[in-house]
Write a structure and sequence with these properties.
about 120 residues, alpha+beta, 3-stranded antiparallel beta sheet, globular, Nuclear Transport Factor 2, Chain: A
């Protein structure tokens, strides 16, 4: 059983479950949008992606952000996924992250898009 994120209950009043593929996508989202220092027992968890939205937009920042995101995903989820590619777009108040990855358990390639407005 894989617990769905964000945590909620299903129609029967039990903890909501989800598929393995969706659970891995949820874990990627947690890594992307958790700021280092936000978790008490894991102060280095996350990549602080939302903090970078307020930085001036440039090619250098985009390259650095891709490096930070890819490194964080490999560090925290390297035993679950192999990161193939990360692309980041920042337009006005919207941050869009595309992650292409391979599930290590099934060798299935997935692509996920995450978007946040600030």
């Amino acid at each position: 059983m894989n617990i769905d994120f964000p945590f909620h209950t299903d129609a029967r009043g039990r903890t909501a479950a989800t598929s393995y593929e969706d659970h891995v996508r949820d874990m990627i989202e947690e890594v992307l949008f958790t700021a280092p220092g936000e978790r008490v027992n894991r102060p280095t968890f996350g990549c602080g992606l939302l903090q970078l939205v307020f930085a001036p937009n440039s090619n250098e920042l985009a390259a650095a952000t891709q490096y930070i995101v890819q490194g964080s995903l490999q560090q925290w989820l390297g035993d679950v996924i192999q990161v193939n590619a990360v692309t980041i777009e920042s337009q006005d108040s919207t941050l869009r992250v595309n992650v292409s990855y391979t599930l290590r358990r099934t060798q299935q390639t997935q692509t996920a898009q995450f978007e946040r407005q600030v």
